[in-house]
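Obj.: predict assembly geometry.
Materials: sequence records (below).
Method: joint structure prediction, all chains together.
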Amino acid sequence: MYEINVNGETRKADVDPGTPLLWVLRDTLGMTGTKYGCGIAQCGACTVMVDGTALRSCQFPIERVGGARITTIEAIEQDEVGRKVVEAWVEAQVPQCGYCQSGQVMAATALLKETPKPTDQDIADAMTNLCRCGTYNHIAAAVRQAAA
Amino acid sequence: MNDLSPLDMSLAAPLVPNEGVANLSRRRFLGGAAGALVLAVSLPAARVRAQAEGAGALAPKPGTRVPAFLEISPDGRVRMFSAFVEGGQGINTAMAQIVGEELDVNPARFEVECAPPSPDHALVNGLRMTGGSFSTRSSYDAMRRLGATARDMMIRTAAGRLKVQDSELTTEDGKVVHAASGRSIGYGELAAEALLLQPKQDVPLRDPASFRYIRKPVARLDVRDKSTGRAVYAIDQKVDGMLYAAVTHAPVFGTEPQALDNEPAVKAMPGVHSVHRLPGAVAVAADSWWRARKAVEALKVRWSEPLRDRLSAVSASFSSQEMLAALKAETAAGLPSETEGDADAAFATAAKVIEADYDAPYLAHAQLEPPSSLARFNADGTLDLWVPNQMPELFQAVAAKTAGLLPEQVKIHSPMLGGFFGRHFMYGPSNPFPQAILLAKATGKPVKVLWSREEEFLNDAVRPLSFSRFRAGLGPDGTPTAISVRTVGEGPIARWFGAIFKNPVDSSAVEGIVEKPYAIPNRKMEFLKVPHPVNIAFWRSVGHSMNDFFYESFLDEIAQAGDKDPYELRLALLKEKPRHLTLLKAVADLSGGWKRGPYDAEGGKRARGVAMASPFGSETATIAEVSIADGEAKVHRLWIAIDPGSIVNPAIVKAQVESAAALGLSSALFEQVVYKDGRRQAKNYDAYKILSREHMPEVHVAIVESGAPMGGIGEPGLPGVPPAVTNALAALTGQRIRSLPIANAKLSGA
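Observations (raw structure tokens):
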């Protein structure tokens, strides 16, 4: 039995060691906003924040979570920066199929928490999640807008 | 899927296999040498007959029965049951705009979902499907009329309540208003009574000059949910008592599990419920998907031997290279796909003749949501199925066969798609839902099957590898007088819709090569069908995805051979085609005026290429600007002018064109499904490279509304991009790319 801090609450998860945080969130805790895309930390659909830093949860086993504060997309609007990012996403009409966008919003929020005024290069370096709909330009525009 | 001529459903054989999917091996499902895959219309023949017989059984004309599409709640919100499934193309918003415009309700107050199976929704020439860039153009007139009819029902009901004449009433954003007395009644109060009225046949439509929602960049209905993790996809479905299942498919397509060497040990793994053999796969059901996956990957499976025959099935030595060589080596005559003038005579007298072979690889859809399905048998004998799909009625019929039920006993839920690009048509062994049904039956519990990303890359149905041989004759002035193209391969229409589209020249194999607008007087195009042993699919823009690359690249070769500028040559060949000419000039203007280059720019020399395409009832003209950095093609900017005739939402049109362009660029630069020794090589995004933000160019889109019949939007932005890019590379380096992806070529620096 593991106890982890998700969105400010202590949650219990009776799972095997080695279970990625992604699957604890989705299947054990029923928080399906965080998406499974590739399972090998390539696509970023599963991005969450761990102590405020973007992290691909598909490669983050439960036993390493410890006392870290996990923030998922479900709580993004409770975060001041996250709320601004969501508003920018809506304003720029970023999503198409939307499947990667939870991860994109988490990555953008983590970037802006660390670097409130990112350069284009900062955005390029931080926003590496894949989007099969090709919304990359809209994503960059939304990040710049959220930082403005 | 460019052309769907009107279908007589009553004559169509069922699109479903004649026997239950449960009993079919993958090889038999695909038909094999017998070519026995029977595919047809979405409705079982018996039901079609029932509808054709007797007035009582007659189904209403699709798109006319208001309650099949609309529910209006007391608070005035409109719930719409759309004929189409939302997968990023923005169709839910477009439906709300079209119906909302005529109904007189702000689209923002619509909630749109994919309707359950019903003949009311067969809006694409008597079929129901979300594909072929058909949704808006096929339903636009019907949905306007539906909205107007519903509005009229509100007015008539209100007239009865207010005891006034219909003609004294008007509407105002969800209310019927009696201006003379200042009284009004909201649609929500009227709906229960109004929607039971007999609809009028001849309700007038709104004057387009007064449109408030159509042709406006109305905000998408789903962006907030999709920006906050609240959008629910098939993969997110959950029901009480559900088991999770993971599968491992046969390493060589068409082989079957024969023995499981360690089944007891796997059964004893934590959380494992049961171990199963399925057609072409093994599965583990467990109390979590992670445990199911660990267990199924621990299974030691012995698979049957692959067939040894060369290309009728995937053999142990099959390779994509061998397949391409076979297509090239084929010498049998093809069937004429387009003949005009006398090409043989024109070649005989040509001042110059050029030839070139073009090919493009198998491609994966690589949509970000891995496929899944959830099946639940209910106590009353019915089956609930949550399944990503582009054809609910067909999936219902095949699910019923698989489950041994009647179609009406299967309740199909069609969740939002996490990208599709053609992935969620009926592809036999490439759909997970039959596995979910079989496992739910075997375990007596609801089962959600989810394919890992690796299983998806290994078992997705692929865009066919393609080959065409081009030949052109030029007159003494360098103008092309003749063109011949020999296309060898197979398209997905014949494979999956062969029962209803019987033309032996598969349009999905030759589209982009035939029906070009250019004035080349003598043309001889032929198609030779050579089936692929692998499972093939529709992939965004289908035949256009490679054929426009072939043709438009070769047209640049013609220009070069005739010592002409490729843009000027196109202008000359389109002299009699005002629509195309306008579009070509529009894209040149958008890019600041045509200049081919090479020219100096920041970071080194750049050049531009141009290409046109006529996909899915729309026209496009594309210009790409490229450079070469570290031996790799770098695309800086794309300019795309699109003429879809007329539009519904300019913001969504632009977003879709940009999205299609990104996929086209991705395919041009990187993508390929490679077979070696009977197996696919890439299992995940690390080896199957798709476009990342690093390679995303600026995209500038111009919409030209010529007023021609409405064309498609989801796919047309794609086909012009690969040839515009390779034509630009040729302008930059002199090197002609005739085989995709570009990453396979060694580029000679700028």
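Conclusions so far: Residues 135-162 of chain B form the longest helix (28 residues).
To do: check interface contacts against the pulldown list.
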